[in-house]
């Protein structure tokens, strides 16, 4: 299937190889999430009178309703069907874009009239002529059916509570089901109390199931079912906001509720009623927290504006092709993954530099300006200051993507079981993501890679390696002095030691050495002071990777550990190890959804972590061996 240059450019931005074949491009399009596919369809929707131009790109059968009997309105159970572009059976999830619906109709009509497709919406190889008048009649009937069902959906949501002008606006602008629920609920909640309800009594407002069982309420319900509190401070974190505000999750409202509850209420939200809507969604979530898996499937179909089948299996299949069901379950999956990710005890925090702005997976250069020789005396009457010279020193590294996935199929729905979404699965995947950073960092400490000057990170020439130095008062003082006494171009750089990093086998020794307020000499032959100069001077970080060894996630190389080697790190984190995260991820795992293909019905989630680590400078690190 040929696509327009604009469509191919968009697919490349989403990650497709620019040199991909037509077959590969078709497969990539079929795998797009609903939101991305809707944008892909929008880009290629324009049709020139001769059939050329942007509209010549096909849809690669991403749930295209034309794949079926033209009189049937499409196969409602077609996997991946999302109603993108307003072409679905019933009110589509097209963001209220009626023009997209018109373009979809005109594109199909053009293909029929030109004989480019046969009666099943496939490339035509049958020489049997097609009656253009019959084709046009069928398409007009189909188009009117879509409009009719959209109108029925809007009127069913409005009832007697929504003003007629709002209903007419929804019909005129072709609002999607989410906007209908949101705007109609706002109208109902802001209606003045009926006359005769004075004396301090509030007028009674009727509340329909359709008006209260919104996508937001179901997202909150699934979180409650999984043991989350919707007021949890976790939702205020940078990582949660990055994960929940993604297009295929659409649960950013939860982070806003958490911010409001924390006292950070935005004035704009108060003025336009958005804060009340967020709070209402949170409260409604408790009504549906006891729902079964099949209940969530049924409501996802309703939210997508489709008819709910009576057969249980058909209902599951149809639900799994909706964007609503993906959004509901992805909310819980994202937060379970994030909770486990944040729960990992990462001993590298604080002494590694974090770079949250790595743009891509290409090689990154990290240069630094070495200390110059300092300012020189300017002679009396001197016209110009002496130049201060610097030299560039550059280290290079690349981030990489690390991923894992799991699935949820129709058997899990039938058994009312989260199956692969059990806490054990999500917790383990979140923990694996959380362990990537310390695995990378300790692989550097133990592996001792070469630096830009061709010498190992810890090397005698670098002044940051001490041998035969068991952890103790005198050896700790030696390591501290070695770091702070470093010079560059004759200048002291005062790389003061701040962190003491030890294997678990030395944790007790290190903490007693640092936390004791005084020390005493075992022998009485020499008079010594009792004050402990190391008291509270360093932060102790211990990790079993230093004892047991660690496998480098980047290279797969195993580095053996030691129970006696220990390290020091400077408070100036830019002089040590840098951990880079891809821009826009918030330093958190990134979840992607997909639909199972072949003989399996279901959905899956892929957890991605985009990061890398590199020793940028040896001056901020010290190693002592015994």
| Tally of structural domains | 3
Strand content: 5-15%
What's the total number of strands? Answer: 16
Shape: elongated
Coarse structural class: alpha+beta
* Rg measurement, Å: 32 Å
Largest sheet: 5 strands, mixed
Question: Outline of this structure?
Answer:
This protein is an alpha+beta fold and 626 residues long.
Q: Secondary-structure blueprint of this entry?
A:
Layout: H1 5-13, H2 22-30, H3 34-43, H4 98-113, H5 132-158, H6 164-173, H7 177-189, H8 209-212, H9 215-225, H10 238-244, H11 252-261, H12 267-271, H13 274-285, H14 293-303, H15 312-319, H16 323-342, E1 353-358, E2 364-369, E3 392-397, E4 400-409, H17 410-414, H18 423-447, E5 465-466, H19 473-484, E6 487-488, E7 491-492, E8 497-503, H20 507-515, E9 539-543, H21 545-548, E10 550-551, E11 558-559, E12 566-570, E13 577-582, E14 590-595, E15 602-615, E16 621-624
Parallel strand pairs: 1-13, 5-16, 8-9
Antiparallel strand pairs: 2-3, 4-15, 6-7, 8-12, 10-11, 12-16, 13-15, 14-15
Question: Can you give a write-up of this model?
Answer:
Pfam families: Phage_capsid_4. With about 625 residues, this protein is α+β, with helices and mostly antiparallel strands. Helix 4 (about 100-115) runs antiparallel to helix 5 (about 130-160). About 40% of the residues lie in helices and about 15% in strands. The model is unreliable at about 45-60, about 65-100, about 115-125, about 195-205 and about 265-270 (pLDDT under 50). It is elongated and about 105 Å long. Strands 1, 4, 13, 14 and 15 form a five-stranded mixed beta sheet that branches. A five-stranded mixed beta sheet has the order 5-16-12-8-9. It has a two-stranded antiparallel sheet with strand order 2-3. It has three domains: about 5-175, no CATH class; about 210-340, no CATH class; about 345-365 and about 390-520 and about 530-625, phage-related protein like domain (phage-related protein like fold). It has helices spanning about 5-15, 20-30, 35-45, 100-115, 130-160, 165-175, 175-190, 210, 215-225, 240-245, 250-260, 265-270, 275-285, 295-305, 310-320, 325-340, 410-415, 425-445, 475-485, 505-515, 545-550, and strands at about 355-360, 365-370, 390-395, 400-410, 465, 485-490, 490, 495-505, 540-545, 550, 560, 565-570, 575-580, 590-595, 600-615, 620-625.
């Amino acid at each position: 299937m040929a696509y327009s240059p604009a469509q191919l450019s968009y697919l490349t931005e989403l990650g497709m190889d620019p040199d991909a074949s037509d077959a590969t491009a078709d497969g990539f399009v079929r795998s797009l999430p609903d939101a991305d596919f809707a944008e892909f369809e929008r880009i290629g929707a324009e049709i020139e009178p001769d059939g050329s131009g942007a509209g010549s790109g096909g849809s690669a059968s991403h749930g295209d309703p034309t794949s079926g009997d033209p009189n049937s309105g499409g196969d409602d159970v077609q996997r991946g069907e999302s109603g993108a572009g307003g072409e679905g059976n019933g009110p589509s999830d097209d963001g209220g874009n009626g023009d997209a619906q018109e373009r979809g109709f005109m594109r199909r009509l053009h293909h029929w009239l030109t004989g480019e497709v046969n009666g099943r919406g496939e490339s035509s190889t049958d020489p049997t002529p097609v009656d253009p008048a019959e084709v046009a009649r069928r398409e007009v009937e189909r188009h009117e059916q879509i409009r009719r069902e959209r109108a029925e959906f809007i009127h069913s949501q409005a009832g007697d509570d929504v003003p007629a002008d709002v209903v007419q606006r929804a019909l005129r602008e072709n609002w999607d089901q989410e906007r209908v629920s949101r705007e109609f609920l706002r109208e109902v909640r802001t209606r003045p109390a009926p006359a005769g309800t004075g004396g301090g009594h509030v007028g009674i407002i009727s509340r329909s199931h359709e008006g209260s069982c919104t996508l937001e309420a179901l997202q909150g319900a699934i979180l409650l079912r999984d043991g989350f509190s919707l007021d949890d401070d976790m939702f205020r974190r940078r990582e949660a906001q990055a994960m929940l505000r993604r297009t295929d999750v659409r649960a950013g409202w939860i982070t806003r509720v958490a911010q409001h509850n924390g006292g950070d209420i935005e004035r704009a939200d108060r003025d336009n009623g958005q804060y009340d809507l967020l709070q209402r969604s949170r409260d409604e979530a408790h009504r549906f927290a006891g729902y079964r898996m099949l209940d969530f499937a049924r409501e996802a179909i309703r939210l997508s504006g489709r008819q709910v089948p009576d057969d249980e299996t058909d209902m599951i299949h149809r639900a799994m092709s909706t964007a609503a069901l993906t959004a509901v379950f992805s909310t819980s999956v994202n937060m379970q993954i994030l909770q486990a990710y944040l729960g990992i005890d990462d001993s590298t925090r604080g002494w590694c530099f974090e770079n949250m702005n790595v743009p891509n997976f290409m090689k990154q250069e990290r240069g630094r300006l070495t200390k110059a020789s300092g300012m020189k005396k300017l002679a009396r009457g001197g016209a110009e200051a002496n130049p201060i010279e610097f030299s560039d020193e550059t280290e290079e590294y690349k981030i990489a993507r690390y991923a894992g996935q799991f699935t949820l199929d129709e058997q899990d729905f039938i058994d009312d079981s989260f199956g692969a979404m059990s806490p054990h699965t999500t917790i383990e995947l979140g923990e694996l993501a959380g362990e990537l950073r310390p695995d990378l960092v300790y692989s550097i400490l133990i592996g001792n890679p070469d630096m830009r000057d061709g010498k190992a990170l810890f090397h005698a020439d670098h002044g940051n390696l001490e041998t035969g130095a068991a952890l103790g008062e005198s050896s700790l003082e030696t390591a501290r002095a070695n770091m702070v006494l470093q010079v560059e171009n004759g200048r002291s750089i005062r790389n003061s030691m701040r962190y003491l990093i030890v294997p678990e086998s030395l944790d007790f020794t290190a903490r007693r050495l640092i936390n004791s307020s005084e020390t005493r000499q075992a022998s009485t032959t020499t008079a010594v002071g009792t004050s402990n100069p190391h008291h509270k001077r360093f932060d102790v970080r211990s990790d079993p990777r230093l004892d047991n060894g660690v496998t480098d996630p980047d290279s797969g190389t195993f580095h053996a550990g030691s129970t006696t080697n220990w390290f020091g790190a400077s408070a100036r984190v830019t002089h040590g190890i840098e951990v880079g995260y891809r821009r826009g991820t918030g330093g958190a795992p990134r979840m992607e959804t997909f639909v199972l293909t072949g003989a399996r019905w279901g959905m899956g989630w892929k957890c991605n972590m985009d990061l890398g680590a590199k020793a940028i400078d040896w001056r901020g690190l010290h190693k002592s061996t015994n």
